[in-house]
Amino acid sequence: MGVDDSCNTGLVLSLGFSSTLQTPSKPYNKNPSFLKLEPNDEPSLTLALSGVAGGVKPASPLSGVSSFSSGNKPKRERELSSDEDEEGTVNGRKKLRLSKEQSSLLEESFKQHSTLNPKQKQALARQLNLKPRQVEVWFQNRRARTKQKQTEVDCEFLKKCYETLTDENRRLQKEVQELKALKLAAHPFHMQAATLTICPSCERTAAAGGVSDGDGNSKNLFSLASKTHHFYNNPLTNPSAAC
DNA sequence: GTACACAGTCCAGTTACGTCA
DNA sequence: GCTGACGTAACTGGACTGTGT
Hints:
Blueprint: E1 11-17, E2 43-49, H1 66-69, H2 75-79, H3 100-112, H4 118-128, H5 132-186, H6 191-194, H7 203-207, E3 211-212, E4 218-219, H8 223-229
Antiparallel strand pairs: 1-2, 3-4
The structure holds a DNA duplex (21 and 21 nucleotides).
GO molecular function: DNA-binding transcription factor activity, RNA polymerase II-specific; sequence-specific DNA binding
Family: Belongs to the HD-ZIP homeobox family. Class II subfamily.
InterPro entries: HD, HD-ZIP_Homeobox_LZ_Class_II, Homeobox_CS, Homeodomain-like_sf, Leu_zip_homeo
C-alpha cells in the first residue's frame, strides 16, 4: 500500500492530533502509548528527520551488549517466586484460562487505571485468587492489545486522510491548470514566461520576468499566480511543500 | 555530589497453550 | 479424532527509574 511505503530518505512523515493525547499517569511510562485519536481532532502532517523528531526513543549505544555487563539475576530466575512452579510442569509454563469473573473484574480495574501500583496489584491478586505476577502479565497484555487496536483504528483513519488529501491535491492541480489557462488568455504575449512557474517558492525567479506597464512601474507577471497560491494556508494542502 | 548495584516496572516481540470451527 | 486459525497467558530481553550504599 502506498501509504505505508517507506522511502529510505531519513524523513519521517507523521500525523499528529491537537487535542487529546492521552497518556497514562504513571511514573514508568516513557513511550507515548495509548494515543487516542478523537473524531474532532485536527490532523496535522509533519515532516521530520528520522531520529530527530520528538518522541523517538533514542537507541542506546549499549543495546545488544548490556546483558553482558549485567550482574542481575536472570529474569526467569528473578521473577519465579518459590511458589510459582508448583504445577510441576516441565518448564513451569502451564497456561490457565481466567474465569469470566476474573476477566470482568480485571477489565473493570483496567478501565479505572491501565497500570497498577504494587498495592493495587497485590489487592487485585488476592481478590482474584491469582498471583501478582499473573495480574501484572494480564495488564501488560491488555495494554498491548489496546495499543494494537488503537493502531488499527489510527491506520484506517490515516488511510482516509490520505485519500482525502489525494482528492484535494487532484482538485487543486486542476484548479491551477485552469488559472494558468485563464492567465494565458489574458496575457497572450507573456506566454513563454508564464510557463515558468506555478509555485510561490519560485516567485523570485519569476519576478525577473516582470515588465514595465508603461507607467514606469515594474509589474510582476505572476502576481495573479502568487495570489492564487497564497490561498494555501493549510500546510496539509500546500503544494509548495512538495517542492 | 557522583558512581554503582540492584529491584521493580515498562514495552515489544515471541512462544505456547486452550478453544473452536 | 485431526487440523489450522485465533485469542491470550506467559515468557524473554532490553531499557528506564528509584533507592540504597
